[in-house]
Amino acid sequence: MRVILTGGGTGGHLFPGVAIAEELKKQRPDSEILFVINKGWSEPATITCYGFSFRRIAAGKWRGKSLWRLLIAGLRLTVGFFESLLIIRSFKPDVIVGLGGYASCPLMFAGVVCRKTTIVHEQNYNPGLANRLLSRFVDEVEVSFPETKNFLSSRNVCVTGSPIRRSILTADRLRGIKSLGLEEKKLNLVMFGGSHGARRINSAALGALGEIKGSSDLLAAWQVVHITGREDYPVIVDAYESSGIEAYVFPFVEHMENIYGIADVVVCRAGGSTVAELTAIGLPAIYVPYPWATDNHQEYNARWVSERGAGVLVLDKELESRFKNVLVDLMQDGEKREKMASASRKLGRPSASAKVVERIICLKE
Fold first, then answer.
1. Could you give the CA distance from residue 207 to residue 323 in angstroms, rounded to a whole number?
2. How do the domains of the chain map onto residue ranges?
3. Which pTM does this prediction carry?
4. Is domain 168-347 annotated with CATH 1.10.3210.10?
5. Using one digit for the tens of pLDDT, what is the confidence trace for 241-298?
6. What are 268's strand-pairing partners?
7. Is the separation of the CB atoms in 260 and 278 below 8 Å?
8. What is the DSSP string of 131-173?
């Protein structure tokens, strides 16, 4: 089977594609897989390090008030459409899977025009503009949240969950502790933003931990593991050293399964892939949605999880007023952490990749 996977230029869109590709190769070893990404995306190593090939096409966002920007976006999409036709002609895919984001539009529309089997996968509760539009034309839409069906025009919607890379599902506490050089007997507070970090979380974490250290001995039983993003790393390292708080600080961690394996409480943003990974493993988390995410989709993700007892939602604007109290409450109350972890596991869909591949094979055959 020959499959093209295409999506926006972030790990949040591409990692589910990698998970689908891994599962497809597992079930159909003779499958040929090609990723098609936006020419503006600077990190194709996300794909190549997993052993998959990629091609680039032009694509552009059509959001914004500037007529000039809209014209440029339209031109890029048109160029990308014709580039996509050439890719389809040369690669001859059996199925084309869109992973969301404006970068998926040219190839998906080209696939519809060429009468290829087309599938869109939506990782978030509130689907993006690209997937809402594409849902009118593709053969099927796969979603992560049952309620997402209400936002889509397609009659063929299947709840699969968000595909998760096999490495994430192998998370192991002892292996993670050894890999990161942690103490084995302590609890672990893990904090991270997206692939580039989250400055607001970094700042709020330092402030909250400083107040906790000054008012109690709660931190004595915990280790802080903080992934800052490369830009903020030097500043955060200096800040921890100045405060006297012991922390394991990393600019970036390639093998997130080690982070998930050791985590007892997680503080993070609420992208669809992050929510899927945390619930598949069953981790209690404080979700701080990125407030400028398109259509506020991260807040929708976090609300869905928190309303079901699998996490706590703290809005970005509430970091100064609520974050420390929520964090202390979870760090102090082991029973609450266990209940939240149990609720998280119940929401998780660790077999999502297999489900999506099942639908790909079913639609084609």
1. 10
2. 2-164+350-364, 168-347
3. 0.93
4. no
5. 999 999 999 999 989 999 999 999 999 999 999 999 999 999 999 999 999 988 899 9
6. 287
7. yes
8. HHHHTTTSSEEEESSGGGGGG---S-EEE------TTGGG--H
